[in-house]
Amino acid sequence: MLKITDLSATVGEDSEAKTILNGLSLDVPAGEVHAIMGPNGAGKSTLSYVLTGRSGYEVTGGGATLNGEDILGMDPEDRAAKGMFLSFQYPVEIPGVPVMTFVRTAMNAQRKARGEAEISAPDFIKKSREVAGMLNLDAEMLKRPVNVGFSGGEKKRLEIYQMMMLEPKFLILDETDSGLDIDALKTVADGVNAMRDPSRGMLVITHYQRLLDYIKPDKVHVLAKGRIIKTGEADLALRLEKEGYDGVLGEAA
């Protein structure tokens, strides 16, 4: 599904450009959830930004495909229409734009790009109520401007709401557990787990094992200095939680 081959990327301008990804390769098949863990500065968030097309990052080598299509040459909105979704570590505020207006506009823009009909207002409202109920989102919250005045937990739940409404093919969750208390973490994890599907892949980026207690990964990858240095089963995350990264980094040296 998502295949990354020898991907290298820099951030910054010209002589100040800094290499963050350094020959990273990764394969996430459809139906699987893979977790990426690693120390600060390893390149975890950079990987999510490069895959989804955030400006300021330049690919200097390698490639990435989604279902066999090269995504790195696409504009961000085209990647989204192909099914890429990024849940941000720090969701941005959009003053003046109600949540439901924003989400319905995004849904219809993606449908148009795929040659599909727009979702009708009744169908949108019905689906919105169902998803909001699963995530304990109050109906009044969906009428407010996107993320304006929301708590950290509310912002994260709202991102999962957007994800469930858009039904993307591939999910990238960048430290979705950041700033969540245990109840919000369970709610967010329930929403993510509801999206598990044989035709959908997920990449979960996290510092901590606790998220993986609720979202069970098929594989865990350790990222350091811009490349994957170790891959293992779910118990690798438990080892990292217990021992830290030093042991794994030493093995790879």
Automatic annotation (TrEMBL):
UniProt domain ABC transporter: residue ranges: 2-250
Metal-binding listed as a keyword: no
The organism's place on the tree of life at top rank: Bacteria
Alphabetically ordered keywords of this record: ATP-binding, Nucleotide-binding
Keyword ATP-binding carried by entry: yes
GO molecular function terms listed in the Swiss-Prot or TrEMBL record: ATP binding; ATP hydrolysis activity
NCBIfam families documented for this protein: sufC (TIGR01978)
Family: Belongs to the ABC transporter superfamily. Ycf16 family.
Name assigned to this protein: Transporter
